[in-house]
Amino acid sequence: MSYDKENIFAKILRGEIPCDKIYEDEYALAFKDIRPQAPSHALIIPKGAYVDINDFSKNATNEEVVGFNRAISMVADKLGISEDSGGNGYRVIANSGNDAHQEVPHLHFHLLAGRPLGPMVYPIKSES
Ligand code: 5GP
């Protein structure tokens, strides 16, 4: 899938659309999700143009991969959700493609925290 420069997160990166910023460095931008699904719901996106985690894992430079992943603990500590920072832990989710219901085609990590998050994947109801 080719990268769509008009996706909403590309517009946020270009400053064309506002966001509630949590953290920013050379490699990553983190901001609050507009429709939070937990008391704390942050999104971390790489500065580079990558559609999803598959694209990023395959095509990003080592420097970008390291820089982006380092942002996770920076954000989690800043939000106070990591156990290191006195929080109760968090979950990282990266949806990739149709079955994962990826909505925005620019790689993003969801950081969810602030309540027990339940099972990692909900079982699908049996059809029989
Ligand atoms: P996905 O389903 O692609 O993994 O998640 C996309 C996430 O982006 C959703 O949780 C959605 O609420 C969030 N989102 C969509 N549009 C915007 C926006 O304009 N601003 C912010 N802050 N979050 C957005």
Notes on the protein architecture:
It contains three helices and five strands. It has 128 residues and is α+β, with helices and mostly antiparallel strands. It has a single domain (8-113), classed as HIT family, subunit A. The chain has a five-stranded antiparallel sheet. Strand 2 and strand 3 form a beta hairpin. The longest helix has 18 residues, at 62-79. The mean pLDDT is 96. Residues 8, 19, 31-35, 95, 101-104 line the site of guanosine-5'-monophosphate (5GP). Guanosine-5'-monophosphate (5GP) binds at residues 8, 19, 31-35, 95, 101-104.
List keywords for this structure.
128 residues, alpha+beta, HIT family, subunit A, globular, binds guanosine-5'-monophosphate
Helix content: 10-25%
Q: What radius of gyration results from the CA coordinates?
A: 15 Å
Tally of domains: 1
For the residues shown, what is the average pLDDT?
96
Main β-sheet: number of strands, strand sense, barrel status? 5 strands, antiparallel
Query: What structural category arises from helix and sheet content?
Result: alpha+beta
- The CATH level-2 architecture is identified as 2-Layer Sandwich
CATH class: Alpha Beta
The helix/strand order is: HEEEHHEE
The name CATH uses for the topology is HIT family, subunit A
- Low-confidence segments, given as residue ranges, are none
Query: Which homologous superfamily in CATH is the superfamily?
Result: HIT-like
Question: What proportion of the residues form beta strands (DSSP E)?
Answer: 15-25%
Number of strands: 5
Order of strands, widest sheet: 1-2-3-5-4
Give the end-to-end Cα distance, rounded to a whole number of Å: 36 Å
Which ligands are bound? guanosine-5'-monophosphate
So what's the overall shape? Answer: globular
Count of DSSP-assigned helices: 3
